Amino acid sequence: MTNTNDKRYNVYSQYLKRKYGEKVYKLPINLPVTCPNRDGTTGCGGCIFCGEEGAGFENLSNELSVQHQIDRNMQYIREKYNAHKFIAYFQNFTNTYLPLEDFKKYILEACRPNIVEISISTRPDCINDAYLHFLNEVRKKQGVEISIELGLQTVNYHSLTKINRGHSLAEFIDAVLRINRFPFETCVHLILNLPWDTMEDVIENAKVISALGVKQIKLHSLYIVKNTVMGEMYQKGDFSIVSLEEYIDRVITFLEYLSPDIVVQRLIGRAPEENTLFVNWNTSWWKIRDRIEEEMEHKDSRQGKKFDYLNGKAVKKWT
Ligand code: SF4
Asked: Is the CB of 51 under 6 A from ligand 1?
């Protein structure tokens, strides 16, 4: 569905309202899982920016059952917002990095009344056909939508090596093509200001994501966590972080090259301030979001403005 709302980009909350007929809330679920990039399977030490608690931080303890976590969060949100529909969001670490039988058990536990969607965050090298076929059965039998969030961060495979991602671009392409065979949503996480990436990489990010038919994206700015490899590099002055103005410019340029059909979950992450050396230029995430939106208005910019490069651009004049 193209961007028909009043914003200059395809806003996730409005997309959810169109899809489910009302506001839908995410319930984070924390599983006792780790990551193959930490336990030596594909790498050791993890991505150089990743703190011990994994990529998410707003979770209940993973010692609580899935059912308990859902019930507790659902009750709280239901009372606070009079909410009726929820997404069970498996957020932390790599949620498909589990034996298939364990994964099945956790997913089925999340199929509870008022859960309309199950969202699973993972790495491109941790999804395969067996997991996808199982999820498709769940979709059909339980009547829930499935969305899969893939951490990528950048399409620049040289930068993927520098951040010790443990996979390259090819694994990401493979994962998206496999997921696309099912009626699932894909969401890709990107960091638009990795120190080694330029505006050229930002544009290529938008073009590759659009060409692959990804359905949703989530943008984050880089935050630097204490006691990580990146934290040490930052303290030694091995790299600098682009200015907030440059980040805003990168986001707007990214959106202009992005297909207008892609839903934008976030323009900037809500990062924790504890244990960090640098977060969002000491500015609230929503102030940065507002500045991006104001700047888009000012420049008469919109998502997809420069989305003219697919389907044989050079021969368009003859067809
Ligand atoms: S893939 Fe995610 S959880 Fe694993 S090391 Fe990287 S950021 Fe951390």
From this structure: no
Positive or negative: CA dihedral 123, 50, 224, 73: positive
pLDDT in tens, the chain (319 residues): 445 457 899 999 999 999 999 999 999 999 988 899 998 999 888 999 998 655 444 567 777 899 999 999 999 999 999 999 999 999 987 889 999 999 999 999 999 999 999 999 999 999 999 999 999 999 999 999 999 999 999 999 999 999 999 999 999 999 999 999 999 999 999 999 999 999 999 999 999 999 999 999 999 999 999 999 999 999 999 999 999 999 999 999 999 999 999 999 999 998 777 889 999 999 999 999 999 999 999 999 999 999 999 999 999 889 8
**Model pTM?**
0.94
Domains and CATH numbers, the chain: 12-305 (3.20.20.70)
Q: Is 37 in the pocket of ligand 1 (CB under 6 A)?
A: yes
Q: Is 35 in the pocket of ligand 1 (CB under 6 A)?
A: yes
Whole-number Cα distances in Å, 175 to 50, 150, 205, 281: 22, 9, 16, 33
Report residue 57 CA to chain centroid gap: 14
Q: Cα of 160 to ligand 1 centre, how many Å?
A: 12
